[in-house]
Automatic annotation (TrEMBL):
Active-site residues annotated for this sequence: Y136, K164
InterPro entries, alphabetized: Aldolase_TIM, DapA, DapA-like
Enzyme Commission number, as recorded: 4.3.3.7
Class in the EC hierarchy, top level: lyase
Reactions catalysed, as given in the entry: L-aspartate 4-semialdehyde + pyruvate = (2S,4S)-4-hydroxy-2,3,4,5-tetrahydrodipicolinate + H2O + H(+)
General function of this protein: Catalyzes the condensation of (S)-aspartate-beta-semialdehyde [(S)-ASA] and pyruvate to 4-hydroxy-tetrahydrodipicolinate (HTPA).
Entry keyword set: Amino-acid biosynthesis, Cytoplasm, Diaminopimelate biosynthesis, Lyase, Lysine biosynthesis, Schiff base
Organism placement in taxonomy: Bacteria, Bacillati, Bacillota, Bacilli, Bacillales
Protein name: 4-hydroxy-tetrahydrodipicolinate synthase
Any GO molecular function: 4-hydroxy-tetrahydrodipicolinate synthase activity
Pfam families the record matches: DHDPS
């Protein structure tokens, strides 16, 4: 049985070359940067990693590389969600063979099913997968909302160990309350503005696009709120970061373009986004640069060779 995740988990970006192939050399550098900055785990091939514009073989190559580059320094969660339970199980078990600890799974969407269909989907995946399953509740992207009661029921499954909540904060609070006494089950937020509020009421961890750019700061926020119980210091740090939170999704949600641009500015190659996503505008890059300067970062000149398309 997998141990439930906790802490700050970075939903890794995927660096692409100009021809949109994956730059694995830069990917390794991104992973080293994250681990050296203190993150508690890596999510490879998630939404921020642009899995949705990749072939299955590319997704597998990313999972394999992520596990190899992490080299056991921190645990790896793989984005393994597919349209059917059979496909998801196959990818989850491939991820397990590569060394992943957990698999992140969206509910069925597009051709939507009933709550019973969703329940059966997750239970089949949990039963037949060799890694811990993390539910991904993201109604803004899927138009499917998993009720707190359904998440509670699924939390009783031995191999379902966590939920990533990217719904509204009220829903997050309801899920946290209803699962508070479930052993080996944790509740994460996936939204930067909710990180401190969620941790302050008992949440066990967080994802966030911004972790790619500011891992040290968000790990520190977790440590202040959870390990040191210093909410005054946590609030002060959160206030410093608040100006950059909204910029991460200013041009779409979810959208890794701005965070990739920010990484380029501090010398960690983020690369392009893959079509049909469009490159971040000069305006958003200038705004990110301004916020990084406020945080004390030395930043590179804006690269105007990559423009919005």
């Amino acid at each position: 049985m997998s141990i439930a995740p906790k802490g700050i988990i970075v939903p890794l970006i995927t660096p692409f070359n100009n021809d949109e192939t994956i730059n694995f050399e830069d990917y390794k550098k991104v992973i080293d940067f994250q681990i050296e900055s203190g993150v508690h785990g890596l999510l490879v091939g998630g939404t921020t990693g642009e899995y949705h514009v990749m072939s299955l073989e590319e997704r597998k190559s990313l999972i394999k590389a992520g596990c190899e580059y992490a080299a056991g320094r921190v645990p790896v969660m793989a984005g393994v969600g597919c349209k059917t339970a059979v496909e998801t199980i196959e990818l989850a078990n491939y991820a397990a063979e590569c060394g992943s600890t957990w698999g992140l799974v969206l509910p069925p969407y597009y051709q939507q099913t009933s709550e019973e269909g969703i329940r059966a989907f997750y239970k089949e995946i949990a039963e037949k997968s060799n890694i811990g399953i993390v539910i991904y509740n993201y109604p803004g992207a899927t138009n499917v909302t998993l009720s707190p009661e359904l998440i509670y029921e699924l939390s009783q499954e031995e191999n379902i160990v966590s939920v990533k909540e990217s719904a509204d904060f009220g829903h997050y609070c309801d899920v946290l309350a209803i699962t508070k006494n479930v052993e080996n089950f944790t509740v994460f937020t996936g939204e930067e503005p909710f990180i401190l509020p969620s941790l302050s009421i008992g949440g066990q961890g967080a994802f966030g696009i911004l972790v790619n750019l500011l891992p040290k700061e968000l790990v520190e926020l977790y440590e202040l709120a959870v390990e040191k119980s210093d909410l005054n210091a946590a609030r002060a740090l959160n206030q410093k970061l608040s100006g950059i939170y909204g910029l991460m999704e200013a041009e779409g949600n979810p959208y890794p373009g701005p965070v990739k641009a920010g990484m380029d500015l501090i010398g960690i190659k983020g690369g392009k986004v893959r079509k049909p996503l469009t490159q971040p505008t000069e305006e958003i890059k200038a705004n990110i640069k301004e916020e990084l300067l406020k945080l004390g970062y030395e930043v590179n000149e804006l690269d105007k060779s990559v423009v919005s398309n």
